[in-house]
């Protein structure tokens, strides 16, 4: 689990590749299920494992970033989405596999964790997708200089003001205009640029 959360931490601050607004990592991939004779014997237990892994990771992400919001992807599935909607490229990307997903939001980034099974003989995939869902009012999450990947605070920019956000309890801890809350560790108030 810690390895998967470390991957997530990296994706939240990694710049998107040229022209793309999505990072996609398969955290786990099963064997394929080509043999029809053993498919049911192997597939069902393996699918249960992948769903349990997804649920554990989702719970860990919820502890760190709060509850997700369900997102209906049916307009994207049917080809009639609002293209000016924040996150439209991410949701269009996901609609190739899902009709609805849970989305955690951290700054301008959305986090999606799902189990994908594209076709009956293909492998299961535990996928982690981080994409741009910004509306132009906030900027990317900046990693604190604290080397601990389970940091307790981060900095986001909202309408031109840098805010310190508590990732464990939720809520804004302070802003650059009135100073950071004094009980934050020094490492939480410095950000890497």
Q: What order do the helices and strands come in, and which of them pair?
A:
Elements: H1 2-13, E1 22-29, H2 39-65, E2 69-72, H3 74-77, H4 88-94, E3 100-106, E4 109-116, E5 125-132, E6 153-158, E7 161-166, E8 172-175, H5 186-189
Antiparallel strand pairs: 1-5, 2-3, 3-4, 4-5, 6-7, 7-8
What does this structure look like?
- With 193 residues, the protein is an alpha+beta fold.
- It is built from 5 helices and 8 strands, in the order H-E-H-E-H-H-E-E-E-E-E-E-H.
- The protein has helices at residues 2-13, 39-65, 74-77, 88-94, 186-189, and strands at residues 22-29, 69-72, 100-106, 109-116, 125-132, 153-158, 161-166, 172-175.
- The chain has a 5-stranded antiparallel β-sheet with strand order 1-5-4-3-2, sandwiched between helices.
- The protein is globular.
- Mean pLDDT is 74; it is low at 137-153, 155-163 and 166-193.
């Amino acid at each position: 689990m810690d390895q998967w959360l470390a991957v997530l931490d990296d994706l939240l601050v990694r710049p998107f590749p040229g022209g793309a607004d999505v990072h996609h990592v398969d955290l786990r991939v099963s064997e394929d299920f080509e043999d029809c004779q053993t498919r049911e014997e192997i597939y069902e237990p393996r699918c249960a494992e992948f769903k349990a892994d997804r649920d554990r990771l989702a719970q860990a992400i919820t502890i760190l970033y709060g509850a997700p919001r369900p997102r209906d992807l049916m307009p994207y599935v049917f080809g009639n989405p609002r293209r000016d909607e924040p996150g439209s490229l991410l949701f269009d990307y996901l609609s190739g596999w899902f009709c609805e997903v849970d989305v955690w939001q951290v700054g301008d980034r959305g986090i999606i964790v799902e189990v994908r099974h594209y076709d009956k003989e293909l492998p299961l995939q535990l996928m982690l997708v981080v994409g741009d869902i910004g509306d132009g009012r906030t900027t990317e999450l900046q990693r604190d200089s604290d080397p601990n990947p389970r940091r307790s605070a981060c900095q986001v920019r909202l309408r031109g003001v840098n805010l310190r956000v508590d990732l464990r309890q939720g809520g804004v801890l302070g802003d650059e205009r009135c100073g950071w809350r004094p009980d934050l560790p020094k490492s939480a108030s410095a950000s890497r640029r």
